[in-house]
TrEMBL record:
InterPro entries: AA/rel_permease1, AminoAcid_Transporter. Keywords: Membrane, Transmembrane, Transmembrane helix. Pfam families: AA_permease_2. It is a multi-pass membrane protein. Gene3D superfamilies: Amino acid/polyamine transporter I (1.20.1740.10). One of its GO terms (molecular function) is L-amino acid transmembrane transporter activity. Residues 29-38 have a biased composition (Basic and acidic residues). This is High affinity methionine permease.
Length: 560
C-alpha cells in the first residue's frame, strides 16, 4: 500500500494560484527526457514542430518534454510501428463482418465497393492524421489534435474525448466473436450465457495481456510483434486459398457464381450503406495506432510517415483479396447467414468439416490476440488523459503513473479492461457484436469531423506553422464529406424499417454514441462550472512522480 499511497490525490486550498504553476525545473525534465530518448533519436524533440512555430498551439497543459518524461522512452522503430498498425487493423473485422456488411447492402458488388471505399477513406484519414501527428509528435492521438485547435472552453474537448475513449475503450468485440468460432469448431450451439462465459474466460487471458504489458513491457512488444506476424500469415493463407478456389482446384463447385451480376439485389437505402460503412471502417480501424504512442517512438516524425502508409497498405490489399476469397468459396445466402463465423464457413466449404475445426480455432485465437495491440495503445491514451488532470477515481496521479515498474502504464491498462467486461455481460451476443461496431463508429465519426474542421481552421489561421507533412486539401475535403454522410445517413429510414440489430431501433446506436459524448459535457460542467456556483475553482499545478512522469494536478481555490 505504501507504493500506492504516493499516487493518491491531495486536496489543497490556495488563496492565490497561477494559471498553471510548475514545480519542476525545465532543465530537469529535459535531462530526464534525453536519458530516456537515447542517442538513436536524431530528431530535435525539445518541442513540437508546430508549437515551436507558434507557442499558442501547445496542446494541453504540458510541454512535449514534460509529456514524454518517464516510462521507457523512445524504443519503437519503423518495424515495430508497422506491426503495431497491422496487428491492430487485422482484427475480428475481416473474419466476421463481411456477412453483416453483405446483409446490409444486399449484393456482392456493393459489398466489395464498400471495402474499396473504406480503403480509400482510411488512407484519406491517415494522411490527415499524419499532418497532425508530425506537427505534434506526442502520445494521445485525437486528444492532442483537438486540444491544439479547440482551446475554449478550456478542457471541454479533453473531457469529451475522455468520455469516448474510456467508455468505448473496450476490446469486447474479439471476446464476443471468439466463443462463436470455438463453438462452431466444436459443432455445438450454446445459449447466450454459455457464450458469455467463454467470452469472460477470454477476458482472463486479456487480464494476462494486461499484466504482460504492465510488468514486462519489452517482452510485451516482442509478443505483440510475433502475434502480428502470425495474423498476417493467417490472412495470407486465406488469400492464397481463395486463389486456389478461383482456379477450380477445390471442392467448391462454382467459385465465380457470386461475381456474375454482382450488383443484383443491391440496397437503395442510404441508412443501409452508412451502417455497413461503419463496420468497414471499424475493420480498418488501427491506421492511427502509432499516433497514440508517439512518446515511445524513435524519430517519430520520420517513423510515422513510413509506418503509417506501409501498415495500412499491407492490410488494405489483404482485406480486398480475402473478401474475394470468401465470395468465391460460399454463396451469398451462406455468407449472410453465417453471422460472425464467416471464416469458419470459408474453411468448411474449402477443406471440409475436420479441417474447419482446426483452422477455426486459429481464427478464434487470432480474434482474441488482437487485444494485445489494442491494449498497448489504449493504455497510453488513458495515461495521457490522466496526465492532463482529468479527475478520475482515486486521483489522476495514480492513473497517470507507470506503477509499479516505472516503465509501463499498468493503471492505464486496468482502465481499459473495465468497460470490456460490462459490454460482454450486457447485451445478447447475437446483437452485441454488430451493435458494438455501430456504437463505436458513430462518436468516432463526430470526432473525425471536428478534427478535419480543425485542420482547415489551422490552415487558415496558422498558415506559416511548420508542417513536416501536408495533406493535399482535396483529400481532406473528401474525408470531411464522407464524415458528414456517415453522421446524417444513419437517421434515414431503412427500406424495410429495420436496422441490422433487431429488435433494437435502427437509430439507437447513433443516440447512444451522442449520449456518450454528452456524458463528457456533463462531467466537464460538474468539474469546471458547478464549483464556481459555490465560490470555488480548480487550478492546475504540475508535479513530477517518482517514476519521472509529469502530471497536472488540480487543487481547490476559493474565488475572491
Amino acid at each position: 500500500m505504501s507504493s500506492l499511497r504516493k499516487f493518491l490525490p491531495t486536496l489543497r486550498r490556495r488563496d492565490s494560484a497561477e494559471d498553471a504553476t510548475s514545480t519542476i525545473p525545465e532543465d530537469q525534465v529535459d535531462v530526464k527526457r534525453e536519458k530516456s530518448v537515447g542517442d538513436s533519436d536524431s530528431e530535435d524533440l525539445s518541442t513540437d514542430p508546430a508549437t515551436a512555430g507558434d507557442p499558442e498551439l501547445n496542446p494541453g497543459g504540458l510541454s512535449l518534454a514534460e509529456d514524454a518524461a518517464g516510462g521507457m522512452g523512445r524504443h519503437l522503430g519503423v518495424f515495430d510501428c508497422t506491426l503495431l498498425i497491422v496487428g491492430r487493423i487485422i482484427g475480428t473485422g475481416i473474419f466476421s463482418t463481411p456477412s453483416s456488411i453483405l446483409g446490409s447492402v444486399g449484393s456482392v458488388g456493393a459489398s466489395l465497393m464498400l471495402w474499396v471505399l473504406g480503403f480509400v477513406l482510411s488512407f484519406c484519414g491517415l494522411f490527415i492524421w499524419l499532418e497532425f501527428g508530425t506537427m505534434f509528435p506526442r502520445s494521445g492521438g485525437e486528444k492532442v489534435y483537438l486540444e491544439a485547435v479547440y482551446k475554449k472552453p478550456r478542457y471541454l474537448v479533453t473531457v469529451i474525448f475522455a468520455a469516448n475513449a474510456i467508455i468505448l475503450g473496450f476490446t469486447a468485440a474479439g471476446c464476443i466473436v471468439m466463443p462463436d468460432s470455438i463453438l462452431k469448431a466444436a459443432g455445438h450451439t450454446a445459449d447466450r450465457w454459455v457464450t458469455r462465459g467463454i467470452a469472460l474466460g477470454g477476458k482472463s487471458i486479456i487480464g494476462f495481456v494486461t499484466i504482460l504489458h504492465g510488468l514486462t513491457p519489452r517482452l510485451g512488444v516482442w509478443v505483440m510483434n510475433g502475434l502480428s506476424i502470425f495474423k498476417i500469415v493467417i490472412l495470407v493463407f486465406v488469400v492464397v486459398t481463395g486463389w486456389a478456389v478461383l482456379a477450380g482446384n477445390t471442392p467448391v463447385k462454382d467459385p465465380h457464381a457470386n461475381f456474375r451480376n454482382a450488383f443484383a439485389g443491391s440496397s437503395h437505402s442510404g441508412n443501409d450503406y452508412a451502417t455497413a460503412m461503419f463496420k468497414v471502417l471499424n475493420a480498418y480501424a488501427g491506421w492511427s495506432n502509432v499516433n497514440y504512442v508517439l512518446n515511445n517512438v524513435k524519430n517519430p516524425v520520420r517513423t510515422l510517415k513510413i509506418a503509417g502508409p506501409l501498415g495500412l497498405a499491407i492490410c488494405a490489399i489483404l482485406y480486398l483479396l480475402a473478401n474475394i476469397a470468401y465470395f468465391a468459396a460460399a454463396t451469398k445466402e451462406e455468407i449472410t447467414k453465417s453471422g460472425t463465423t464467416v471464416a469458419s464457413l470459408f474453411f468448411h466449404n474449402v477443406f471440409g468439416a475436420k479441417a474447419q475445426k482446426a483452422l477455426t480455432v486459429f481464427v478464434a485465437l487470432r480474434s482474441l490476440l488482437t487485444i494485445v495491440t489494442c491494449t498497448f495503445a489504449a493504455a497510453r491514451v488513458n495515461q495521457e488523459l490522466a496526465k492532463e488532470g482529468i479527475p478520475l477515481p482515486f486521483g489522476n496521479k495514480f492513473w497517470a503513473s507507470n506503477w509499479p515498474t516505472g516503465k509501463s502504464p499498468l493503471p492505464g491498462l486496468v482502465i481499459h479492461l473495465i468497460p470490456s467486461i460490462i459490454v460482454i455481460i450486457g447485451p445478447p451476443p447475437s446483437v452485441a457484436y454488430p451493435f458494438i461496431l455501430d456504437v463505436e463508429g458513430y462518436p468516432g465519426q463526430i470526432i473525425n469531423f471536428f478534427i478535419v474542421i480543425g485542420l482547415f481552421w489551422l490552415r487558415y489561421t496558422k498558415p506559416n506553422v511548420p508542417r513536416p507533412f501536408k495533406v493535399w486539401w482535396p483529400v481532406a475535403v473528401f474525408f470531411l464529406a464522407a464524415a458528414v454522410f456517415l453522421l446524417v445517413a444513419p437517421f434515414l429510414h431503412p427500406a424495410n424499417g429495420v436496422g441490422d440489430t433487431p429488435p433494437l431501433p435502427y437509430y439507437l446506436y447513433c443516440l447512444v454514441g451522442i449520449a456518450i459524448l454528452a456524458v463528457g459535457v456533463l462531467y466537464w460542467a460538474l468539474w469546471r462550472v458547478v464549483p464556481r456556483w459555490f465560490g470555488y475553482e480548480f487550478v492546475p499545478n504540475k508535479e513530477k512522480l517518482s517514476d519521472g512522469t509529469v502530471v497536472t494536478v488540480f487543487s481547490a481555490k476559493k474565488i475572491d
